[in-house]
Amino acid sequence: MARDSLVCNVCPVRDIAACAALNADERDELARLGHHRTLRRGESLAAAGGDNTLSATLITGVLKVSSFDRDGTERILSLIHPAGFVGELFAPAAHPALVALTNAELCVFPRKQYEAALERFPALGRALLRRSSNDLLESRSLLAAVTGRTALQRVSAFLLAFARAASPHPGRTATRFDLMLTRGEIAALLGLTIETVSRQLTRLEKEGVIGREGPRGIRLEDDVRLGRFAG
Fold first, then answer.
1. Core-most of 49, 164, 171, 191, by most CB within 10 Å?
2. Are 51 and 94 spatial neighbours (Cβ–Cβ below 8 Å)?
3. Is residue 138 part of a domain?
4. What is the pLDDT of residues 139-163, one digit of tens each?
5. Are residue 90 and residue 119 in the same domain, yes or no?
6. What is the pTM of this model?
7. Among 230, 205, 229, which Cα is nearest to 219's?
């Protein structure tokens, strides 16, 4: 884990993260409160049920938000992509676990200081509310992917939700993205077996809806047909 001061003028998400709503002086003031942090794949930013002391904006990589049943079974609740906000504001405990699915970079802030910044900068609060609404829609899309659907519909809906979340433009889909979850994690999320997930991905590839690039890369060939398969 590494920590450095924030340098906003070279941040790749500076124009789409919530802080984009601030002017230059306000952004500099916010930056002085935080630091840059890196996580390796599998490293946790916050443990399930732990103290909620941090807020962060994801710069690069993908995080998963998970909870655990009494028997230790993991349930992936949502995914966080670049420009996404991390942390439960005005709450004493961070109930879900936050784990890096890839090497990740974040702008990290002490939660109480970030909450105070929201009071000083109303535009930041409004932008964060819009960001939270988008994240909620993504979570609902993932939930819909596992509710009363065939295996093909579940995998298609999952890919479509992932493509939308990976796009820097709200309401649009990314044409290329890396599928950071393992087959086992996708299967657990969708309530399927690993073999079933693999079969459905192969079927979508044969149908010309997606292409695969390397071990994790997905190329979206036809988002309209993918939406039809998702039902």
1. 164
2. yes
3. no
4. 676 666 666 789 999 999 889 888 8
5. yes
6. 0.76
7. 205
Residues 208-220 pLDDT 10s:
999 998 888 999 9
Pick from 132, 164, 192: which residue ends a domain?
Answer: 132
Please choose, from the candidates 121, 127, 79, the residue with its C-alpha nearest in 3D space to the C-alpha of residue 104.
Answer: 79
Q: Whole-angstrom Cα distance, residue 29 to residue 193?
A: 49
Q: How many domains does the chain have?
A: 2
Whether residues 19 and 68 fall in one domain: yes
CA distance 66 to 48: 8
Q: Which residues span the domain enclosing 221?
A: 145-230
d(CA 143, CA 146): 6
